[in-house]
Amino acid sequence: MDSGMNRIFRWFCLLLLVSGVLRAEVAPDPVPPPKEEVYLPGVALTQGITEITGVAISPLLGVSSVGIWRYWKTPAVGRSALPWYAQPWAWGTGLALLGLCFLKDSLGTAVPGLLKKPFDMVELFENKASALVASGAFVPLVAQEMAKHLEAGRALAVPTASIAGLGFAGVDAAWLVVPVAVVAFLLVWVCSHAINVLIILSPFSTLDALLKLARTALLASVGLIYLIAPWLAAALCLVLIALAAWLAPAALRLAIFGARYAADILLPWRGRRRATPQQPHAFTLGRVAGLPPRTGGRMVLLDDGSMAFRYRRWCVLDERTIPLPDGIRHVEKGLLSPALVHRAGPAELKLLLFLPRYRGHEESMAGHLNLHGVREHSLARGFAAVKEWIAGMVRRKSGADVPVIRA
Predict the structure, then answer these.
(1) What HEC string does 238-249 produce?
(2) In terms of CB atoms within 10 Å, which end of the chain has fewer, N or C?
């Protein structure tokens, strides 16, 4: 009995030993916590500048590319802690939208430009929405990472005792880095967004493709230069930011014009409800009384019977009234929107371009503003002349074939 119990006890101990060995062999090694990336001096700063500038050039493509890159470079155990833009649902949705845009551009070169313009206008607002998301949810995250490395003294090769933490002023570095990063992003984006506006104004699909190709090539150049020399990419981005700051006022006027122009075409019922023929909304086509091109405002009739252009500085400041030059003024019908044509002697010039909502209100505008009349667009006049010439040729030919019966 004792020998039987001893035998069972020995087998039980042997079983425990074998199971422990097997458990030790199949148990996974403990996963070390993900190590924080350690950058060489200046790399954190150059990476942040490059990412912000690249995303500003093309928000949807830039955010998706950065998200894919961070997802691919991060070990599988740490991917769940990545920011939102590096999650598969974020950059996967971005790639799907980019695929639709690529399909639209690829098929658009084979169709007339007018048939592709509504889709270009939808992409115009997609670019605005992507920039809004990037400026509010992407750029601050990148800027905070830059501030974190700046405070730790790892972002610069020079001593950063006076910069790190800004302890002498009691201010966190992120409070300075984030606003500067957002402003830099918006400056570059508004200049890049001008390409979308030029695309909806361009009548040729081939020119549209060239404009997009140029923007994509610039974005690819920034990324390629960063892989070769990060400091050189950061220097290029700083040059682009400075150039964008110089071009920003003109690009902002163009962006406002493009948004209002596209909104009237995509939502015609909304524009018709807001049409005011007695004070029509318009944009300057050239320098009118010192105003830069694409300044938005209203054409008004003053109490003394003279014509004027009324606008607000920077869209929100004080209202100003600029008299329009004297001469013969007509409202010219357009393919998408009418325009104000001014003639003084033999010279003729288009002064203002009205919003598409006023198409069909040309007679009413001419009556309310005491203009000299309404005329057809030059292209329509050319078609009408060709049509009249063909009709005359047909009439003459048919008249020659009709026999003359004499009494």
Answers:
(1) HHHHHHHHHHHH
(2) C
Q: State the pTM of this model.
A: 0.75
Nearby residues of 219 by Cβ (< 8 Å), 6 or more positions away: 54, 57, 58, 61, 62
How many angstroms separate the CA atoms of 252 and 242, rounded?
A: 15
Q: Which residues contact 365 (CB under 8 A, 6 or more apart)?
A: 277, 280, 331, 338, 354, 358, 371
Q: How does pLDDT run across 258-285, given as a tens digit for each residue?
A: 999 999 988 888 777 888 888 999 999 8
Distance CA 284, CA 332 (A): 15
Range of the domain at 87: 43-266
Give domain status of residue 8, yes or no.
Answer: no
Q: Is residue 26 part of a domain?
A: no
Q: And the tokens for 247?
A: 């071009």
Measured between alpha carbons, how far is residue 286 from residues 115, 186, 201, 295, 372 in Å? 28, 26, 16, 9, 21
* CA distances, 285 to each of 13, 289, 354 (Å): 94, 12, 10
Regions in the chain scoring below 50 on pLDDT: 1-6, 8-9, 12, 14-41, 154-170, 383-385, 400-407
Number of residues that make up the chain: 407
Asked whether 187 and 248 are in contact (CB, 8 A), the reply is yes
